[in-house]
Amino acid sequence: MEIKSAARKLLVEGGAPAIGLRAVARELNLSAPALYRYFASHDDLVSALVADLYDELTAFLIELRDTGADLGEQLFLIAGGLRDWALAHPAEFGLMFGSPVPDPEAVEHELTPSHQAAMRFGAVFKDLVAQVYWQRPFPSPPDAELGPELVAQLEQKSEFFDGMPAGAIYLSLTYWTRLYGLICMEVFGQLHWALEDAGAYFDAQLREIGQALGLDCPPG
Amino acid sequence: MEIKSAARKLLVEGGAPAIGLRAVARELNLSAPALYRYFASHDDLVSALVADLYDELTAFLIELRDTGADLGEQLFLIAGGLRDWALAHPAEFGLMFGSPVPDPEAVEHELTPSHQAAMRFGAVFKDLVAQVYWQRPFPSPPDAELGPELVAQLEQKSEFFDGMPAGAIYLSLTYWTRLYGLICMEVFGQLHWALEDAGAYFDAQLREIGQALGLDCPPG
DNA sequence: GCCTACAGTGAACACTGTTAACCGTTAACA
DNA sequence: TGTTAACGGTTAACAGTGTTCACTGTAGGC
């Protein structure tokens, strides 16, 4: 779809607000209302673009993952790959992950294409962590340390996490929240005040998280 | 300034895009151009509002901090206080922290009021962590573990961190990035797929981070 | 030759931030 | 006391936005 690639071109050139219907149409020598033959609204257009971006990122990570020798290295690879992709495509990343405060209970169980693509993206990390665990179960915090409320919530997601126990799900979640938060902060410029090049900091953090998952120290 | 409180009312009611010049003006029985007597542009208005919000949040955290018996408890208090404030004011929090991708080298060393207010906000955490360290220096990772590049960057910020060594600055940064990332993910709905109530998870994470800073386990 | 679906157009509506020209009140000052 | 300037507000207008409507060709199927 050339219309989405036109939208993306405008996105990388001028950020999310540059994706205007007339601007996109102009890019294709078209009239603005013509786009309504293909998308129900402006939101639908950017949502479809976001879905595409998720799929592209997912494919990139899968390809990168499959170059890893073992599961542990694969986990390091996709973590670094996510950061690299985000830094190489800050506008796209901002559009995908930086849309805050989705009004509560937006669409119940969102099944919009972009949300589904986001789930496929997340599954790459979830599946790999689960594989790592079942291949060599990493030591996880005992239930007493997490507290009964948290354990109950985690066990509720046990089937989704391939039957992992609460403590292991907790560590998987920690892996994800730390990785995600770190990359968002770096890409969104929330780390500039402390570090001008967050690469070394990211690597150190990744080593920490990897250790918690029982992985060998860093590759390379 | 009643004009900013009108803008805030619209913000909490309809999110950031609801802050329109005409909407704000209507709230005060005014005409839209009248607002230009007080703010140079729409951006200036929301920027001033953001500065106010930072100051309000900072004051709230300081007041909360001063109810803590010792420095360690104070650190737990402001961490939880930040989360509570964010959850209680998601629209405000989204406006303050969820504006992604500030175009590179926006205003060099930004000295806009909102940026200054953000620095005062961050200082609350930085100062307290430094006090905690100098009262009872927590064990920090050796330089060899962090790598020379990262150590060099961290030592560059040593004066800003009250003379703390690289390893201690690293742990302080870890405290902040984990706390910040965690809260952003929760209030921006990025944790719903895994936890419907992230409170217990937040507490567990906070205990982890506190342990790394040599603090006693949780209060209460 | 009809008919339907497709793909596109220009005009228009309601909205946005912003600017210009204008007006009344108020206060300072020679 | 009369003049001047600033303050705080107005209406009208401009360019831009997403969106809808009515319309026009143009292709293919029966």
TrEMBL record, chains A, B:
<keyword id="KW-0238">DNA-binding</keyword>
<dbReference type="GO" id="GO:0000976">
    <property type="term" value="F:transcription cis-regulatory region binding"/>
</dbReference>
<dbReference type="Pfam" id="PF13305">
    <property type="entry name" value="TetR_C_33"/>
</dbReference>
<dbReference type="InterPro" id="IPR009057">
    <property type="entry name" value="Homeodomain-like_sf"/>
</dbReference>
<keyword id="KW-0805">Transcription regulation</keyword>
<dbReference type="InterPro" id="IPR025996">
    <property type="entry name" value="MT1864/Rv1816-like_C"/>
</dbReference>
<dbReference type="InterPro" id="IPR050109">
    <property type="entry name" value="HTH-type_TetR-like_transc_reg"/>
</dbReference>
<feature type="DNA-binding region" description="H-T-H motif">
    <location>
        <begin position="20"/>
        <end position="39"/>
    </location>
</feature>
<dbReference type="InterPro" id="IPR036271">
    <property type="entry name" value="Tet_transcr_reg_TetR-rel_C_sf"/>
</dbReference>
<dbReference type="Pfam" id="PF00440">
    <property type="entry name" value="TetR_N"/>
</dbReference>
<keyword id="KW-0804">Transcription</keyword>
<feature type="domain" description="HTH tetR-type">
    <location>
        <begin position="1"/>
        <end position="57"/>
    </location>
</feature>
<dbReference type="GO" id="GO:0003700">
    <property type="term" value="F:DNA-binding transcription factor activity"/>
</dbReference>
<dbReference type="InterPro" id="IPR001647">
    <property type="entry name" value="HTH_TetR"/>
</dbReference>
<protein>
    <submittedName>
        <fullName>TetR family transcriptional regulator</fullName>
    </submittedName>
</protein>
